[in-house]
Amino acid sequence: MRNSSFWFTCTHVVLFSATLLCLQPKSTASALGNDTDQLSSLRFKEAVENNPFNVLASWNSSTHFCKWHGVTCSLKHQRVTALNLQGYALRGLITPEIGNLTFLRYVNLQSNNFYSEIPHEIVSLPWFWQ
């Protein structure tokens, strides 16, 4: 009788745990993607040496990255889909971390002074050659 009681308890613990996992409001993958987008974008900002119009002032950890100047996010996943920083006289490097923005479909960095080559991580994104 003890053995069946043990298995009954184990079964309920497993079912309860599985139910809790299903009820989580935000998936871990989505949260990790959001963290990746924020950290990758902040790394890009760190490589900007000159920001004369202070357009990257909103790019900080206290403001959600989807509200940053020049950033557009998808409504469903809250992931970065576009970077439009045209014409702000930014100077610096284009960091490889931009390639971590896997939902990114549009980048406009015209009329700035980025002096690095386009990183391989960006060139390998599927939309780059379209």
UniProtKB/TrEMBL annotation:
One example GO MF annotation: protein serine/threonine kinase activity
E.C. number: 2.7.11.1
SUPFAM superfamilies referenced in this protein's UniProt entry, alphabetically: L domain-like
Lineage of the organism: Eukaryota, Viridiplantae, Streptophyta, Embryophyta, Tracheophyta
Family matches, as Gene3D superfamilies: Ribonuclease Inhibitor
Name assigned to this protein: LRR receptor-like serine/threonine-protein kinase EFR
Top-rank EC class of the record's enzyme: transferase
Range of residues in the leader sequence: 1-29
Keywords, ordered alphabetically: Kinase, Leucine-rich repeat, Receptor, Repeat, Signal, Transferase
Residue ranges of domain Leucine-rich repeat-containing N-terminal plant-type in the record: 42-74
Pfam families: LRRNT_2
Superkingdom: Eukaryota
The species this protein was found in: Glycine soja
